[in-house]
Amino acid sequence: MAEKVVKACGGSVAGKTLAILGLAFKPNTDDMREAPSLTIVPALQELGAEIRAFDPESMTEAKKMLPGTVFASDAYDAMKGADAAVLLTEWNEFRALDLERMKGLLKSPTLIDLRNVYKPAEMAAAGFFYFSIGRRAVEPGRAGLRAVASRT
To answer: In a 3-state reduction of DSSP, which class is residue 51?
Structure first.
């Protein structure tokens, strides 16, 4: 999954800030055992990314397990000035993010949705570069959906 994030970020995350949304193994728990974030976050950090993260429940445990990570007060705080947002855990509050607010906070309106929470057509219509699992990446465009060949 870290490789998917790197590809979505143009082939490199070096010097980029990534907003990680969700750290726990699954929503509605603080359980960090076998959480994907425990491999994805360090891999991205090793490649030179700065990580700003938020999880509604697992921040206390995550702080012990993810050194070098900046922990945000909420999802929008994590996105301030970030190059892209990466959705790792499908918390209900991440299913209803204010997309206009996100666009205003992110350097580039880019969402890498590793849980397929959002619909590609809706994200393109909202003006996002959107990457998910098992579906083609899309970018904003006048004609609606267009594949993002250069970034995936």
So the answer is: strand
Domains contained in the chain, CATH given: 2-151 (3.40.50.720)
* DSSP per-residue codes, 52-96: EEE-SS-HHHHHHH-TTPEEPSSHHHHHTT-SEEEE-S--HHHHT
pLDDT in tens, 75-102: 999 999 999 999 999 899 999 999 999 9
**What gap in Å lies between CA 110 and CA 75, rounded to an integer?**
14
SS3 (DSSP) at 50: strand
**Model's pTM, two decimal places?**
0.89
In DSSP notation, 104-145 reads HHSSS-EEEETT--S-HHHHHHTT-EEE-SSS--B---TTS-
What average pLDDT does the segment 108-135 reach? 94
**What confidence tens digit (pLDDT) does each residue in 28-87 have?**
888 898 899 999 999 999 999 999 999 999 999 999 999 999 999 999 999 999 999 999
Question: Is the CA virtual torsion 73, 55, 39, 106 positive or negative?
Answer: negative
Count how many residues are written for the chain.
152
DSSP secondary structure code for residue 151 in this structure: G
